[in-house]
Amino acid sequence: MGLELYLDLLSQPCRAVYIFAKKNGIPFELRPVELLKGQHHSDAFAQVNPLKKVPALKDGDFTLAESVAILLYLSRKYEVPDHWYPQDLQARARVDEYLAWQHTTLRSSCTRAMWQKMMSPVFLGEQVPAETLVSTLAELDRCLQLLEDKFLKDQDFLAGPHISVADLVAITELMHPVSAGCQIFKSRPKLAAWRQRVEAEVGKDLFQEAHAVVLKAKDLPPADTSIKEKLKPSVQVLLR
């Protein structure tokens, strides 16, 4: 069996892995895992990833969890163009720096913004207190400012003059609040121009393909009671 990728394109790190593999012509078998149906909690998926999270990779007998680890594994195994994860010590360190920062900052605020503004009221039928959403959006704005000031600066891409895995991880995160109607690029022309450059490098068709699911999430039918109960433990932390 060749390379298998367990993904749900509703998930931002899954989108990053999907875009990276497709853009670099990496052959893989897509194994869909529907998060909103709780399929990541199944015994069958736990055999692939005991953490019960996507994305997950299976390459023969080898399995791997965590999106950053998967992106770097693919970049090394398939010898993709150097700009994705540069050999140059300091250029690679800049990519690593962003990947280390984003886990507890941009990812957290983007995910919480999407769930509080859209997924909770639309999918779960639960309104989040207004003050909670205001606080989350303020934290998102703070993270966006750091993204511009610390990482993008006056460069074309986050780690320098060329696109890297850092840009894929970042743009897929930012499309979460965009899907919920947050106009995060409207008052940030520098960030908006960066987004256009990333989309152009990825290719418009692939970018739209990867984000079709999340951009239609606002039209999801309400979840039934059993799904709500299944998702409750993991979702509650996002609603605070």
TrEMBL record:
In terms of domain of life, where is this protein from?
Answer: Eukaryota
GST C-terminal domain ranges (all copies): 88-222
User: What are the protein's UniProt keywords?
Assistant: Cytoplasm, Transferase
Main EC class the enzyme belongs to: transferase
The subcellular localization recorded is: Cytoplasm
Reported EC number(s) for this entry are 2.5.1.18
What is the name attached to this protein's record? glutathione transferase
Its gene name is: LOC100856518
